[in-house]
Amino acid sequence: MKKSQTRFGFTLVELLVVIAIIGVLVGLLLPAVQAAREAARRMSCSNNFKQLGLGVHNYHAAYNQFPTQKSGTGMYPVATWDLSNTTGNCEELSALVGLMPFIEAQALWEQISNPNAPNKDGSTGVWPAMGPTPDNGTANGNYGPWNEELPFLRCPSDPGTGLPAAGRTNYAVCLGDSPISSTDGPTTSTLNKKNSNAGQMARANCRGAFVPRQKAKFRDILDGLANTIIMGEIATDLGDRDTRTNPRYGMTSLELALNPSICGEATYVDAGRPQFWATTATLINANSIGRGFRWADGNPVYTGMMTISPPNTPACAGSEGMYDGSATLVAADTLDQNYSLVPPGSRHQGGCHVLMGDGAVKFITDSIEAGSQNLSTVARIHTTANGLTAGSQSQYGLWGKLGTKASKEVIDEEF
C-alpha cells in the first residue's frame, strides 16, 4: 500500500507569487500611509492656529486690542528705526511677541519683558527689557529669546530648521491688500507718529486687521469677524529659490502696487519648475533673510501676509525703502525692511490655512477667486492716490474681500 507524503514549505513558484502579492500591497499602502501622515500633520497645524486664535481673543479681552504688529521700545541711540540696535528694539517686534503669555509661553515672556535675558547659548546675557532689534545682527543675533524655535509657531509639514534662520514661524498676521506702508504704518523713519501725511497714507493703504505700529481692535473689523482674515499660514525658506519663500526684488514698490502680476513674471520663473525662480531672478535672500525666518520680527517678509495674490504664489519686495510720509523714498538699511508683496503659503497640498477674526480656521485653496492681478492696489503716496482710490472695494475678488476689514464687501460664496 502506497503511503501519502506530507509536503512542507513552498515551491519556488508559490514563493514568487507571495512576494509579488506583498509587493503590490506595499505599493498600494505606501501612498495611503503618506497621505495619512500628512493629514495628521495638517490637523496639528490647524490646531496650532486655533491656539493662536484663542490667544488673540484672550489678549483682546485683557487689553481691549490686538497685540500690535511692530511694537516695543524706542530707538536710542540709533537715528532711524531700520538700523540695528542693542539698547532698544525700535518698535520692530511682531504681534507674536505680545501673544506669548496667552499661548502658554509665560516663561519666555518673562525673559523678554525683563532685562538680562540669556544669550542663545544659554550663558548670562546683558540685554534691555523687551530685547534688542530682532534683526540677527552681529551683536543682537546672540539674544536668546529671538532664537527660540517655538513648536506652537511651527507647522509639522514644514521641514525648515536651523541656520541661517533665527526662530522660525509658519504663522503671519494679515496686512490687507496693499504693499505700501506695510513696514512703517503711520510713522516716519524716526518713529514720528504725528506726521499727518504718514498717518493718511497708513489709513488709506493699511486695510488689513493688523496695521504696523498702530492699535487695532475687533470693533475696527466692520465687515464682520467671520468674514475677515486676521492671520495666514506661510512656508519658511529652505534655501532652494522657492518663489513663495525667497522674495524677488528689482521692481519698485509702486510698480508692485500698480500691477502685482509683475512679481511672478515668466521671465524670472523656471519654466521647467514653475514654483522656483530662474537664474535671471535677483533674490532677497542674503545672510538671514527669508520668509518666516524670525518669529519676533514685524517686517512683512517674516511675519506678514497679504490678500493680493492667491496662496502659494510668488513673493516680491520693492527695491527701495519707505516713503516716510513724503513723496520721496527713504532707503532702508536692509532689503527685508522694504515694502513687500507677500502672499500666504504652505507645504500642504493645494492651499493653506487662514485664521478668521471669530477664531475659525479655514483651509483656502490656491484656486480661490482673486480677481485680476493686473489691477492696482490702493497706493496713496504722500498726498497722491497713485492706484485704486482709498476706500474702494478690493479688486482681488473674494480673496481681497476676505483680507480687508472695513470695505463693506459682501461675501456671497462659500470658501
TrEMBL record:
Chain segments annotated as coiled-coil in the UniProt record: none
InterPro entries on file: DUF1559, N_methyl_site, Pilin-like, Pre_pil_HX9DG_C
Origin: domain of life: Bacteria
SUPFAM superfamilies referenced in this protein's UniProt entry, alphabetically: Pili subunits
All residue ranges annotated as the DUF1559 domain in the record: 34-370
Name of this protein: Prepilin-type N-terminal cleavage/methylation domain-containing protein/prepilin-type processing-associated H-X9-DG protein
